[in-house]
Amino acid sequence: MPMFPPHPETPSAAAPLEGVSVTALWTARMRAQESARPDALIHDPLAAEFPTAAGTAGAPPGSGLLQTVLPDWLAVRTRFFDEHLLSAASGCRQVVLLGAGLDTRAYRLDWPAETTVFEVDLPALHVFKERVVAGHRPTAARRVPVAADLLGDWRGSLLAAGFDPERPTAWLCEGLLFYLAPEAVDRLVSTAGALSAPGSTLGAECLNGHTAESPFVRPWLEALSGSGTPWVWQLADPEQWWGERGWQAEVADLLALPYAVDRFAPHLAAHPGLEKQSMILVTAKRTSGGR
Question: Would the N or C end of the chain have less CB density within 10 A of its end CB?
Fold first, then answer.
């Protein structure tokens, strides 16, 4: 299992992450807070260790209504993709987390035997993460950190790490794609598709292009842009967009999920006009290999 040992030219575990990687600390902090709730939707015992190691976790920018809902959204999103990945792993013993950030699913989910979890993200983020998770035992049979820039040749790095494109794969793009320019999203999705054997699955989170200008979403997008972490990609027709790229996609109906209904109920009661479809969770299947 590739690891990233201490190196004198790399930042210490306490050094702050930069750019979009900072959002991984926000996410870790919110997952830690969720895990401490008596009605927690997920349990992430490692989450609190990341902000502690960094010395700070920061917070999402701005103070609008979406920021108030964000911790509950993150809990629902995480639970949804946890269940999706475990279901997919029954037929896909390769799991690839693109833009893995400080995700700890390789340590906290009950993976089927022989499951390998590849975590693809920037080298500096891996250096920080490896020092925090050192000494903890993964629940996956193998956890493989892959240091690569998703705007560059991450395909070569993934293959070099032992990824087998002849085997079905469960891909996850959680909290990632909206940070990328449309052409970069196309390249990433095309690369993943070309590496996907029949039976592969994919999970992704997308900003709904129909609601980007709504009073609920627009202040959030402006706050992100002002903080230097803008969301620059959105979708108006997810099923068609993913279908054109070889994936049979389905948009999740969050209000059909009991845990989502329970968690969002207080927000909907307090704000009856709250935008309910600003974010889209997509799951998709690949019936043919390559593209």
Answer: N
| pLDDT at position 1 over 70 | no
SS3 146: strand
Pairwise CA distance, residues 143 & 148, whole Å: 16
Say whether pLDDT at 127 is over 90. yes
Cα 99 off chain centre by: 7
Q: Which element (helix H / strand E) includes 69? A: helix 65-88
Which residue has 């948009």 as its token pair? 251
56: tokens are 């700070």
Going 88 to 93 to 97 to 103, the CA torsion angle's sign is: positive
Give the dihedral sign, CA 76/175/171/110.
Answer: negative
User: Which residues, 6 or more positions from 36, have their beta carbon under 8 angstroms from its beta carbon?
Assistant: none
| Higher local confidence (pLDDT), 186 or 15 | 186
pLDDT of residue 11: 34
List 116's β-bridge partners, or say none. 94, 142
Could you give the strand order of the β-sheet that contains 248-251, starting from the edge strand earlier in sequence?
142-147, 116-121, 94-98, 169-173, 201-207, 279-285, 248-251
pLDDT at 288: 79
Is 178:231 a contact under the CB 8 Å cutoff? yes
Buried b or exposed e, range 245-266, using 16+ CB within 10 angstroms:
bbbebebbebeebeebeebbee
